[in-house]
């Protein structure tokens, strides 16, 4: 190991993202393990490419935190798509159908809950927003994959007409997944604020309890 | 009943057994990589350690940091008695499954 590698620094933004994502009790130990591996193994072996390795690891941590919420988002969208395909309804432009309303609230609720839970655990607002955004991205990809799988199973003319009637294939494949990103950001921010406030309240209450004891 | 352990969980727990007092995240990562002879993401190790701790198979304490980790504390892991039961049960199950079979399998004798 060279003296260069022992003081090499990973991308600052990535390290800061990782630390924001972790609960306080794991923040030093996990980021320390990753920094040690980066300096002792990756920089000597990969040189400049070690930074890309570090970013990949941090992406892995983000996806691990967002995976469950993303899977839920994907499941909600595929369920809606299946309902529209197997039991089509006539949509009237300008009027939000109960089916659309239920899906929208379920999506926003899931993303806000994911962000809130993350912010509550980590005490960081931005980590909640990040998890919601990542969950929206994962959910979008899963929804597109689910749509294609459904299409492979049901593609008779009647089903294709039903798909057209509910917004068309383009909307299901990339319209909705792309729309999820700003929704994830906005509802994620709201959920993260709620989680962050809850974290502050929990800490305040535990400090009061400590003082009383 | 002892917890049913997956192969990766067994690799992580056995790394803790091997490393004894030096069982912290990166040391466990290196041991698991060497034993499984493949690249393993640090995130997979940390997720597994967290899961095993929640299942009450491991306990942990924070130790001191080193300059190469910018002074950040190491988290050292120790096996709980339930982990010893679970590892023994896992080993017994594998031995039972393989009982009476010559190892390694050879194409001529074992495949049609």
What does this structure look like?
The complex is a heterodimer of chains A (213) and B (112). Helices cover 85% and strands 0% of the residues of chain A. The mean pLDDT of chain A is 89. Chain A has one domain (63-212). Chain A is mostly helical and 213 residues long. Chain A has eight helices and no strands. With 112 residues, chain B is mostly helical. Chain B has five helices and two strands. Chain B is elongated. Chains A and B meet through helix 3 and helix 4 of A and helix 2 and helix 3 of B.
Catalogue the unreliable spans of chain B.
Answer: none
How many structural domains can be distinguished in the coordinates of chain A?
Answer: 1
The helix-and-strand class of chain A reads mainly alpha
Q: Percentage of helical residues of chain B?
A: 40-55%
Properties at a glance:
heterodimer, A: mainly alpha, 85% helix, B: 112 residues, mainly alpha
Question: What's the SSE blueprint?
Answer:
The complex is a heterodimer of chains A (213) and B (112).
Chain A: H1 3-6, H2 12-21, H3 24-46, H4 50-86, H5 98-122, H6 125-153, H7 157-165, H8 169-212
Helix pairs in contact in A: 2-3, 2-4, 3-4, 4-5, 4-6, 4-7, 5-6, 5-8, 6-8
Chain B: H1 7-19, H2 25-36, H3 42-54, E1 58-62, E2 75-79, H4 81-98, H5 107-110
Antiparallel strand pairs in B: 1-2
Helix pairs in contact in B: 1-2, 2-3
């Amino acid at each position: 190991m060279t003296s260069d590698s022992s003081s090499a620094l990973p991308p600052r933004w990535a390290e800061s993202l990782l630390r924001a994502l972790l609960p306080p009790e794991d923040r030093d130990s996990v980021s320390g393990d990753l920094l040690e591996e980066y300096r002792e193994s990756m920089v000597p072996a990969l040189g400049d490419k070690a930074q890309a390795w570090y970013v990949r690891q941090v992406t892995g941590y983000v996806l691990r935190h967002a995976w469950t919420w993303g899977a839920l988002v994907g499941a909600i969208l595929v369920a809606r798509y299946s309902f529209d395909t197997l039991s089509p309804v006539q949509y009237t432009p300008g009027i939000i159908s109960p089916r659309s309303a239920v899906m929208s609230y379920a999506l926003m609720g899931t993303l806000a809950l994911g962000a809130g839970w993350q912010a509550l655990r980590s005490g960081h607002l931005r980590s909640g927003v990040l998890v919601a955004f990542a969950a929206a991205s994962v959910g979008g990809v899963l929804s597109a994959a689910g749509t294609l799988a459904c299409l492979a199973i049901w593609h008779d003319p009647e089903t294709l007409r039903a798909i057209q009637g509910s917004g068309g294939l383009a909307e299901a494949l990339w319209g909705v997944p792309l729309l999820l990103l700003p929704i994830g950001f906005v509802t994620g921010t709201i959920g993260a604020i709620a989680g962050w406030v809850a974290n502050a309240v929990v800490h305040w209450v535990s400090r009061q309890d400590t003082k009383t004891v | 009943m002892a917890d049913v352990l997956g192969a990766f969980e067994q690799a992580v727990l056995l790394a803790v057994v091997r490393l004894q007092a030096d069982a912290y995240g990166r040391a466990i990562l290196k041991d698991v990589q060497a034993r499984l002879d493949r690249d393993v993401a640090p995130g997979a190790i940390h997720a597994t350690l967290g899961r095993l701790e929640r299942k009450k198979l491991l306990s942990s304490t924070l130790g001191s940091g080193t300059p190469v980790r910018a002074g950040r504390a190491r988290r050292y892991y120790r096996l709980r008695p339930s982990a010893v039961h679970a590892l023994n049960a896992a080993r017994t199950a594998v031995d039972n499954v393989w009982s009476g079979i010559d190892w390694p399998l050879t194409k001529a004798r074992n495949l049609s």
